[in-house]
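Hi F.,

I've been meaning to write this up properly since the lab meeting, where we talked about keeping a consistent format for the predictions we share between groups. The idea is simple: the sequence comes first, exactly as it goes in, then the structure tokens exactly as they come out, then a line or two of notes. No screenshots and no reformatting. I'm using this chain as the first example so we have something concrete to point to.
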Amino acid sequence: MLRPREMQFKIERTKLFSALSHIQNAVEKKNTIPILSNILITCQNSNLLLTATDLDLSMVEVVAGEIISDGATTTPAHLFYDIVRKLPDGAQIELSTDNENSQIIIKSSRSKFSLPCLSKEEFPVISNDDLPHNFQISSKVLKKLLDKTKFAISTEETRYYLNGVYFHKPDNVDNPVMRSVATDGHRLAYTESKLPDGVSDIPSIIVPRKAVSEVRRLLDQFDEDINVSLSDAQMRFNIGTTTINTKLIDGTFPDYQRVIPEQNNKFMKVDRSDFVAAVDRVSTISTEKSRAIKLSIESNMMKISANSADTATAYEEVAIEYDSELIEIGFNSKYLLDITSHVEGSIINFSLSDSVSPAIITDDSDSQSLFVLMPMRV
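Output, unedited:
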């Protein structure tokens, strides 16, 4: 009886580790379906393909190596990643399958590991269908669209339609733009950029939190244009040698424009560094659950204060530009710091109405971004 053909290839450790560090994040730590804990390893056409999926998101990485014989198998993703991570830099790795014993053999210098395999036939088929909308976007622009909004994504699963970043082309603007929006009901963030070529009829979509995180992580290592394809239900990012496919959230994003107040008529400017440092210091003693601080805003001076349940107090004054009547308003200090950390200029602008209405926060250096923060009782 002929022994089943074995897959075999050689690769430098740094290349393999880099690829695995990209895609192992697609694999959930706990899985009730064993095959979803595995990574699919495929040798074909002189390349090594590594594939991981959680059924909603999949990642495929192409790595150049020395392919000795073609084949495919699956093995536990996180275990495989940890082994390669602990091998020394510059090490040569040889991988081969022992199909008779359903194992993959990892050899490097004096190290040898045998890991269990599941059949490639059990691994979910990753869709590679053409998607109707295709465009290119610079990595710098995509970073901004994600960074200025992703912190406001809701983690409340019952309102699943808020569990991602909403991308769309707004109708009420003079020049076509692509806008990204996120909100958790307590804060809202949006930013926009010039509409990329080829997306005049782009559908409005909600990109899930996990896909946003994985795309953003890859962008730190890639500074060229990104190829993006999408349909009403699916989105694909080609980032260097990595392809990310994600299902989109099937839901309707709320009319966020209704949340942005139009009657705020009290305007304050404050130095970003001074304000952030003061809020951070004062919030040290605020009650952990609410993290509440109070801003008392009067002519050219803001008093920031907080109290804790055990009678600790904090108080600090910050110089501002403001010429309206006194207003006292409370905020969750964490939400306030999250927003102000995404202001890039030296000045933060607040527009306010009263102590119970949302505040609008903008950045002097970025007219394309806007933040809304709901107040709280203090």
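Notes:
The mean pLDDT is 93.
The chain is about 15% helix and 40% strand.

If this format works for you, I'll send the rest the same way.

G.
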